[in-house]
Fold each of these.
Amino acid sequence: MTTAPVRLLIHGASGRMGQALLRLAGDQAGLQVVAAVQRRIGQRVVDGIPHFAGSELPGVPAFDAAIDFSLPEGFDPVLALCAARGAAFVSGTTGISDAQRQALRDASQRIPVLWASNFSLGVAVLDELVERAAAALDGWDCDIVESHHTQKKDAPSGTALSLGEAAARGGAQPRYASLRAGDIVGEHLVQFAAAGERIELVHRATNRDIFARGALVAAVRLAGRPAGLYRVRDLL
Ligand SMILES: NC(=O)C1=CN([C@@H]2O[C@H](COP(=O)(O)OP(=O)(O)OC[C@H]3O[C@@H](n4cnc5c(N)ncnc54)[C@H](OP(=O)(O)O)[C@@H]3O)[C@@H](O)[C@H]2O)C=CC1
Ligand SMILES: O=C(O)C1=N[C@H](C(=O)O)C[C@H](O)C1
């Protein structure tokens, strides 16, 4: 018996990540993009995919999961739509507020929810290494330096803040620094330093397709699951 493809809504479709998701969705088995949503639209249908403005969200066709890579100001309506329609919600939008983080937890009572500051496997591994290093290096200075392209609006990056939470779980008190230069996709250096020595743990992303592929796989695997708050490591 063939399984019906997971029907996807891509939110933030005109953005750097939205464009990567649309480009790669065609290569990912088990899914079909049924709606692309962005703040303002030009053409109604692009490459056979219906496009909608953010204000048209309530009228989008039925979908099984939404993937959101928009901005904090676009986050609330798409989360609310998923909760209302009983659809899975996958989001990588960073710079969201504490209230929006709480809204994710509230929605997870009704639908499967996955929010991740970084959808790469490499950063998921780095996160665990940072926590282990912090736990082993009591009293060492911990600094997180993140570098991104000049168009990035939030700082520190969501990934840097998540790595800082991992370091804090290990007992460190991380400090942050942000660089904005060129077209850097995303680099995170976590340094532990003490008298006479230091350790550097570094992740360098050179293609944002790694994030898009992670989010697409997560959405296919999350759709249809029981309500709850899921992590990347639960699904990748
Ligand atoms: N978790 C992860 O692995 C990753 C997370 N990110 C995060 O994803 C987010 C997007 O990044 P990026 O693609 O570079 O950003 P872009 O600025 O390139 O794209 C943002 C998209 O969101 C849309 N948008 C903005 N506001 C609204 C709104 N109110 N309603 C509907 N759509 C809206 C924009 O539409 P329009 O063009 O019409 O304005 C655009 O399509 C950022 O928060 C970034 O940090 C990025 C990479 C990886
Ligand atoms: O804005 C970006 O580009 C990225 N943002 C995410 C973050 O804020 O951590 C993930 C990745 O570093 C790319």
Note: Residues 121-205 form a domain with the Dihydrodipicolinate Reductase; domain 2 fold (CATH 3.30.360.10).
Amino acid sequence: MSVRISAMSVLPPVRRDRVIAQLPQCFRKEAAIHTKNDFNNKVKTACQEQRTGTVGRFKISKVIVVGDLAVGKTCLINRFCKDTFDKNYKATIGVDFEMERFEVLGVPFSLQLWDTAGQERFKCIASTYYRGAQVVIIVFDVNDIASLGHARQWLEDALKENDPTAVQLFLVGTKKDLSSPAQYSQIEQDALKLANEIQAEYWAVSSLTGENVREFFFRVASLAFETNVLAELEKSGSRQIGDVVRINSNSNNLYAASKKKQSNCCH
Ligand SMILES: Nc1nc2c(ncn2[C@@H]2O[C@H](COP(=O)(O)OP(=O)(O)OP(=O)(O)O)[C@@H](O)[C@H]2O)c(=O)[nH]1
Ligand SMILES: [Mg+2]
């Protein structure tokens, strides 16, 4: 049996465990980007009608992961993308990146995850990759209060290269497995306070056990997707995205055809 390879089939289908049909919930209602139970209605309708514009075709959201050295940025990304965990520390030199493909409400959507170096000597290389981020993830170690204290500085550096009003911000505490419930709840108070001040959504995870890792990235993908689709809908304004689909598919035919004629007349 011969197998035909077309341009369309070069890209493998989205993995079944990367399919998001429902909005994943926030970790703490006290520090969330929003606390709605479901995707925005306009977004849901646009997805159903395949009116998502460039989202789903070419759109890739850039995500940068920043924070002090050895807080666990690389382990967090590796746990999600490769389902692995390395207990030995290997400093990231400059940057690394991973692509993750999702399907959100039936629409393909990709995140480009940039893992940056926390070590001071590699910071200047890493910061040249900050530009164009839609999502900034600031990572700290829940067992190291100093790493939480440095979060503001990481944010400031990341926002120098980006439009602060367009960035979605997450504050993520790692290595939850190493802290006792009492220690954890103490640092959580400080983290929630900071998250509110900088308007970030707060999460706590463990890359060793995998606790909350998948939930966290699904939340990131979903919120980035929602924002992108809303921006597309806003951009299109009264001229609806996907008019072409409508012209071919339903009773708007007559109206669309007459509009087309009119515009041709103007040439
Ligand atoms: N117990 C435990 N250890 C962790 C966890 N995450 C990371 N580590 C350990 O912490 C160390 C640093 O992890 P990395 O992910 O390399 O840290 P990083 O933030 O990428 O460091 P830089 O690349 O230098 O900025 C490694 O020894 C990891 O095994 C976790 O969730 N639990
Ligand atoms: Mg690293």
Note: The chain is about 40% helix and 20% strand.
